[in-house]
Amino acid sequence: MIDTRRLRTLRAVADHGTVTGAAAALHLTPSAVSQQLVALEHEVGHRLFTRDGRGVRLTAVGRIMLGHANEVLAQLERAEAEVAAYATGTAGEVTVACFATAISAVLSPAIADLRAKAPGLEVRVRDAEGDHGLALLLDGEADLTISVEYRGAPDAADRRLSRLPLYAEPFDLVLPQDHLLVLADHPHGHFRPDEAPTALGDVPLAALGDEPWIGPYPGNPVHDVITFACEQAGFTPRFAHSSDDFRAVVALVGAGAGVALVPRLALRDMVLPGVAVRRTPGPERRVFAAVRRGADAHPLLRPLLDTLRTVAGSLVHD
């Protein structure tokens, strides 16, 4: 009989591509992970991995076993959810991995709402960008993640996850207040010191191909969205400055250091000295909640997922 713990080890090694990475995620030693894999290969009677540089890759039999492992582990998640529901568990702790803007926009309001609806539910929040949040979920470090679509992200058909679309958020251009494209559509040609410039007209991204850009570091899903949008407009953005903090990005724009694309919700409550905000067609980030497949019926996760959907549905993007 195949030990389910070895199936978890198989999936972790497949996810991380190295024994060392899987060991860190599973809180085991690399030798313990290797022993689990050897034992699983003995049970199956076939090699499951081959060496690939410094890492490993699945053999054909390994890919077959990984598909079954995903099904078995999802079924175990469903079993735990049904047992918890049978026991009418209404109190417990849920860990949520979530990026900063969504913490403000949907997770915090959901937590506030749940205080009355589910007082026994305690939500622990871990600030994590979309790609890191998914890794925390799959490694068992989080019970739910709020993440974004990005190149290389697990798609909606991924058999390890159950996903709930939350909202699509457009990006806005943030330009220095004295930028020529800003002054061109202002009736006075300049702004009074007390005047807060708002979006007056759309600006095509193609008009900014020669500008220095400010944005998140490579690896941040927003960096991918910006780069892809600019490539669709016919150029590759030249990032002169990098920060994962949108307030820092906007401050640098205000200092005249470059231009930026910023998610609209990140700008919602931000003081914007020295900058002008413009709409631009196209770029947006799609935000979703995800749990491990089979866990979406868990009595501690269900009310949180339902409340997140309600809060996200109330978001209005002007």
Characterize the structure shown.
- Helix 1 crosses helix 3 and helix 1 packs across helix 4.
- This protein is α/β, with parallel strands linked by helices and 318 residues long.
- It is 42% helix and 23% strand.
- Strand 3, helix 5 and strand 4 form a beta-alpha-beta unit.
- A six-stranded mixed β-sheet has the order 4-3-5-10-6-9, with helices on both faces.
- The protein is built from eleven helices and ten strands.
- About 4% of the residues have low confidence.
Q: Helices, strands, pairings?
A:
Blueprint: H1 4-16, H2 19-26, H3 30-44, E1 49-52, E2 55-58, H4 60-86, E3 92-98, H5 100-117, E4 121-127, H6 130-138, E5 144-148, E6 161-176, H7 180-184, E7 212-215, H8 221-232, E8 238-242, H9 246-254, E9 260-263, H10 264-267, E10 275-292, H11 302-313
Parallel strand pairs: 3-4, 3-5, 7-8
Antiparallel strand pairs: 1-2, 5-10, 6-9, 6-10
